[in-house]
Amino acid sequence: MKKKILCLLCMVLIAMGGCGGSAAQQEEKELSKSVPNEEITEESVEETNTDDAGRATIQMGEFEAETLSKEAATQEIFEKSQLTMLNIWATFCGPCIQEMEGLGELNREYDSQKFQIVGLISDVYSQEQSEEIQKVIEENMETARVIIDATKADYTHLLLNQPLWEKLGGYMQYVPTTIFLDSEGRQVGEIYSSAHSKEEWKEIIDGVLSEMEAEEE
């Protein structure tokens, strides 16, 4: 079974450049870094918060969830670090998988009290479904484990459930989508709806941390 999934993983990575499409060459390049999540619409958002400039922002608030390792998780997961990078990905998403090795390295390189990465697997649900759907979910769960093992992206990965869907669904039209959150689960900086190299992410992370430290002074 695992050998079959590894072959599928290789096929996804090879085919990754074919995700999405556009009339303009530059737009094609950007779309190749993400994959549409066709089931998700902006109406999925539970409520909209705004910053001082009137822009929509995310505040996670209270929630209960489950990790891929079957552990309970709540909003307290964000309290472990000054800055959390919430990386929303899917097992079918080539660009997601391509960036995960770099994300795993970054998570190990930073002081965990200062920065951490948390994954959210958008096609693995923790709530019981019909027998047919549950079978697909379990297959996706096994695929996710293989991907994480292969890329060494061994940080905590949350499973999508209804409360998380209501809070984040409208921001998940494309995967990967990455959101930065402070220790209270409030959005910091921009939302990124494309994959990036390790070096690009490091520059972004350091920039967000610098802005946070400047605001504290």
TrEMBL record:
Signal peptide: 1-24
Alphabetized UniProt keyword annotations: Signal
Feature: compositional bias, Acidic residues: 39-50
GO MF term (any one): oxidoreductase activity
Superkingdom of the organism of origin: Bacteria
Thioredoxin domain mapped to chain residues: 29-210
InterPro entries in the record: AhpC/TSA (IPR000866), Thioredoxin-like_sf (IPR036249), Thioredoxin_domain (IPR013766), Thioredoxin_ResA/DsbE_sf (IPR050553)
Region (Disordered): 30-54
PANTHER family: PROTEIN DIPZ, THIOL:DISULFIDE INTERCHANGE PROTEIN DSBE
Protein name according to UniProt: Thioredoxin domain-containing protein
Organism whose genome encodes this protein: Blautia hydrogenotrophica (strain DSM 10507 / JCM 14656 / S5a33)
